[in-house]
Design goal:
Elements: H1 2-11, E1 28-31, E2 38-41, E3 46-49, E4 72-79, E5 84-87, E6 95-102, E7 105-109, E8 112-116, E9 121-125, E10 130-134, E11 140-147
Antiparallel strand pairs: 1-9, 2-3, 4-11, 5-10, 6-9, 6-11, 7-8, 7-10
Length: 149
């Protein structure tokens, strides 16, 4: 894995760019923790995949890659139990990424409603109103990345 990190650094590209197709990004994308590719090592090098071969004591999962956009802001969010937070629309073209760290969070964007567990990520075009709601009887925490065009 260290060799590939060095290669990515030498090429001045993100590590995941060696493995992830940049293709078109959907308007709304949800990646469940169990579906996030693991960075695994098998003696031939490191790669992204769902291979069962990995060090169970140190697991690296690919959560998100972003390429060739503008500014980024990162926020930690905490939502009290059963609280709903209506967020106003951001500027045109802003993509919002939510990674759930603790608890469960429901996200509503237009008529799409997703329930996210710890380790899940959701990305969506945030130039429209959207709602966050903690689903359990304990606070929920997440990391929000605002990705400006």
């Amino acid at each position: 894995m260290d060799t590939l990190w060095s290669l990515a650094t030498a090429l001045n590209v993100p590590f995941a760019a060696l493995f992830v197709d940049e293709g078109a990004h959907p308007l709304i994308e949800v990646v469940r923790r169990e579906d996030a590719p693991k960075v695994t090592r098998d003696g031939r090098g490191a790669f992204l995949g769902k291979s069962p071969k990995h060090d169970p004591h140190f697991v690296v999962r690919h959560i998100l890659s972003r390429h060739a956009r503008g500014e980024v802001e990162v926020y930690g969010v905490e939502i009290d139990p059963k609280i709903e937070r209506q967020a106003a629309a951001h500027s045109k073209g802003v993509v919002e990424h939510l990674y759930v760290v603790a608890g469960r969070i429901e996200v509503r964007v237009d008529d799409v409603i997703e329930s996210l567990d710890e380790g899940d990520r959701m990305s969506f075009l945030a130039d429209r109103e959207h709602t966050y709601r903690a689903l359990d009887d304990r606070p929920a925490r997440g990391v929000v990345l605002l990705d400006y065009p």
